[in-house]
Write a structure and sequence with these properties.
The complex is a heterodimer.
Chain A lengths: L8 H14 L1 H21 L7 E7 L4 H11 L4 E6 L6 H6 L5 E5 L3 H7 L6 E4 L4 H29 L23 H32 L1 H7 L4 H31 L7 H25 L3 H18 L12 H7 L3 H15 L3 H28 L13
Parallel strand pairs in A: 1-2, 1-3
Antiparallel strand pairs in A: 3-4
Chain B lengths: L3 E12 L2 E12 L3 E5 L6 H9 L6 E6 L2 E2 L4 H7 E4 L11 H11 L4 H15 L14 H12 L6 E5 L7 H16 L3 E6 L2 H4 L4 E6 L2 E6 L1 H8 L4 E5 L3 H9 L4 E7 L2 E6 L2 H14 L6 E5 L3 H16 L7
Parallel strand pairs in B: 3-8, 3-9, 6-7, 7-8
Antiparallel strand pairs in B: 1-2, 1-4, 4-5, 9-10, 11-13, 11-14, 12-13
Helix pairs in contact in B: 3-4, 3-5, 4-5, 5-6, 8-11
Classes of the chains: A mainly alpha, B alpha/beta.
Chain lengths: ~400, ~325
């Protein structure tokens, strides 16, 4: 009998499709949950800080101080929410989170400025959210810096020193994601996360369900070989999850403006490799477990946490301790994520992502191969007692 | 063609230090209904799973349909049909979809499958319900459909592992008619059950207890050969007390409770009757009825188990 003759593949595929079709919950789980999670994460996991509510305590009330306040008012980073009479009034407003930052201009501001004494302007930032607090402080600092630079030049100009320039003019340019929008950065990660979790969980269920119902025994006694069973289960789930991957891509483009810069076939190849690996991992899990609960638990533990934390999805790998960094090499999503970001955001070709492809191919081969071997072996253990003793 | 459909020699399965099946040997003639009887956990399923190739034996050998279960497991698979107590069907597929899937799984295609489909439907009494989801069927229907799916590829040997669990008596009888039909068609049927009444349908029986075969033969042989002492049935409203009283008597060979009556094995019938009445009267226990009964297979089974447990001593930690 030839290894490559897959005579019993078609009945398995047909059966799986029918079962998935009748199981509306799983179908929704696989198709719409990714899109739903994208919406949820895409809007919630937003590290951009814009429209920070700001309060101003202008104790000077001069033209110069109003000019400075205007500087804050005219950027989209700050929204002027309140003008307060005293510094003491800031605390209750910030505690209620009506404002997240406050600008305090001292009464001597314009006098000091004119006298060249270098007035001190105070910026108070709500640090209870470290991420947005740091960003707000950064923006405020930058605005004050540029204002201060101009004031210096003006002052020098008034003294007759015209035509001066700032000695070091920095021109920082951000490539691939010029507005530094976190959606750009997160969507490839979300795709990896969603596909990994959904695909692994749903396939992990599929074999364990057969074990629980006893149909696995019938299959093992039929002419269906383990490889045919695995392929037969992988093909329908792969087709469906490929569809949901495209839905995520489409939503990313439409809602978050994340278009694909690189080659689509290359992107597709990366997705297919990754999906195969994730599907294999799901079947592997179901080959070594006996109940759907345990399979679910293992599937979630081995996909959700590593993919969320260790793939570079949210937390940059290079900031992790060396030991943790070493662990990330075992997380397939890490490679997929790197490949996705490179293809979608940077538009690179295979020359830049071949190492990632190599790892993904290895992951796919390993997980499907191990699944085939373990599935064959999984039943030689002690049979579970089907009923309690009477 | 081999003389026996199934030959088993010293088949043993150990899980760790637990011996589930202990050096079991027997032969099954072709075309016969072979019953494997025992309580839950006695080793019935483990034996059947080894014979089907679902489980590797620890030691011993067996051939099924002339094929060695260790060296030719693929050939064994082709030769047999298997049905488990769980009626392993896909509940979310329709009747016809189940039949078509299992047909495809056994390598039946096109015309061959088209021909078998109505046969299974007729046999299971499911004609006209092809499009019903399997989960909507009653247990009896599921059971017959599962049997139909197990014999789709017309195997010469069928293994049925507790096929009648959870099914109503009428369906059980109908199922045994199907099994008889298969047997008449030349199919060897290997069936396990813990219902003693079902054993009466079998041509040949083995009783298995704690992984060992404790008795064997036709139902008639077992009843006459194993139990030679008369059995008296004592009806009383205090059977447990009656048993405690009688167990202490040296002339009582065995006692066991069957519902509201007590079976007492004695050496001599008339002497036994007299002693039972006298002893129970002295204990103040009223005897409603006292009859000699024909031993049932259950009596045989209990007798054999007590015999074996007595011989093995109380050392074995088996429930």
């Amino acid at each position: 009998m030839s290894v490559l003759s897959l005579c019993c593949l078609r009945p398995v595929i047909r059966k799986e499709f029918r079962q998935i079709r009748r199981d509306a919950r799983s179908l929704m789980f696989m198709t719409f949950l990714p899109a739903f999670m994208l919406l949820l994460f895409g809007y919630a996991l937003n590290f951009d800080v814009k429209h920070i509510p700001l309060a101003v305590v202008d104790q000077d009330g001069s033209r110069a101080s109003r000019d400075l306040v205007d500087r804050f008012r005219t950027t989209e980073y700050f929204d002027l929410k309140a003008v307060l009479p005293r510094t003491a009034a800031i605390d209750p407003v910030m505690a209620r989170e009506d404002i997240r930052a406050a600008l305090v201009i001292p009464p001597t501001f314009s006098d000091d400025l004119l006298a060249g004494r270098g007035p001190a302007v105070q910026v108070i930032v709500d640090g209870s959210n470290a991420m947005s607090g740091t960003t707000a402080a950064g923006y405020a600092g930058a605005i004050l810096q540029s204002y201060s630079g101009r004031v210096t030049l003006d002052a020098l100009g008034r003294r007759g020193l015209t035509g001066l320039v700032v000695p070091l003019d920095t021109d920082v340019r951000v490539w691939y994601n010029p507005e530094l929008r976190s959606a750009r950065f997160l969507i490839p990660g979300l795709m990896a996360f969603i596909l990994m979790v959904i695909v692994t969980v749903s396939t992990a269920f599929s074999v364990v369900r057969e074990k629980e119902r006893g149909t696995m025994d019938q299959i093992r006694l039929s002419s269906i070989r383990p490889l045919e069973l695995i392929l037969g289960k992988v093909v329908p789930y792969a087709a469906i999850s490929l569809g949901s991957a495209h839905l995520v891509l489409l939503l990313g483009q439409v809602l978050f403006g994340v278009g694909i810069r690189g080659s689509y076939p290359l992107l597709l190849a990366a997705i297919v490799l990754f999906l195969t690996g994730a599907l294999g991992q799901g079947i592997l899990i179901s080959a070594v477990t006996r109940t759907q609960q345990v399979a679910f638990l293992i599937a979630i533990l081995t996909t959700m946490l590593p993919t969320f934390i260790l793939s570079g999805f949210v937390f940059p790998i290079r900031n992790m301790p060396a030991v943790i960094q070493a662990v990330t090499y075992l997380v397939p999503a890490r490679y997929f994520l790197a490949a996705l970001r490179a293809i979608i955001l940077k538009g690179v070709g295979l020359w830049a992502v071949w190492p990632q492809f190599l790892f993904l191919a290895g992951f796919a081969a390993l997980s499907v191969g191990a699944a085939a071997v373990l599935l064959r072996r999984s039943e030689t253990e002690r049979p579970r007692r089907r009923r309690g003793r009477r | 063609m081999p003389e026996y459909a199934i030959e088993v020699k010293d088949l043993t399965k150990r899980f760790g230090d637990f011996t589930a099946v202990d050096a079991v040997s027997f032969e099954v003639e072709r075309g016969r209904i072979f019953g494997f009887l025992g309580a839950n956990g006695a080793g019935k399923s483990t034996t059947i799973r080894m014979l089907c190739g679902l489980l590797d034996p620890t030691s011993g050998m067996a051939s099924v349909g002339g094929f060695d279960i260790r060296r030719q497991p693929e050939k064994v698979k082709r030769a047999i049909g298997y049905m488990s107590q769980r009626f392993s069907l896909y509940e979310d597929l329709t009747v016809a979809e189940n039949i078509r899937f299992f047909g495809g799984a056994y390598g039946l295609t096109g015309k061959a499958l088209d021909a078998r489909l109505p046969w299974v439907l007729r046999m299971a009494g499911l004609a006209g319900r092809e499009r019903s989801l399997t989960r909507t069927l009653s247990a009896g229907w599921k059971q017959r459909l599962a049997l139909g799916c197990a014999v789709l590829h017309e195997p010469k040997i069928v293994f049925l592992d507790e096929p009648t669990g959870g099914v109503d008596p009428a369906s059980r009888r109908r199922f045994w008619e199907l099994i008889n039909g298969l047997s008449e068609g030349g199919v060897t049927v290997f069936v396990t059950t813990h219902y003693m009444d079902e054993a009466e349908y079998c041509n040949d029986i083995r009783l298995i207890h704690a992984g060992r075969i404790v008795a064997g033969g036709s139902p008639q042989e077992l009843k006459t050969a194993v139990i030679r002492n008369p059995i008296l049935e004592v009806s009383s409203d205090r059977v447990v007390d009656a048993m405690e009283v009688l167990q202490k008597e040296p002339w009582v060979l065995e006692t066991s409770i069957f519902g509201t009556s007590l079976h007492v094995s004695v050496a001599d019938e008339s002497e036994g009757r007299r002693l039972i009445r006298e002893r129970l009267a002295r204990a103040g226990i009223a005897v409603l009825r006292l009859d000699r009964i024909r031993p049932s297979l259950e009596d045989v089974f209990i007798h054999k188990i007590e015999e074996q447990d007595g011989a093995a001593g109380a050392g074995e930690g088996r429930p």
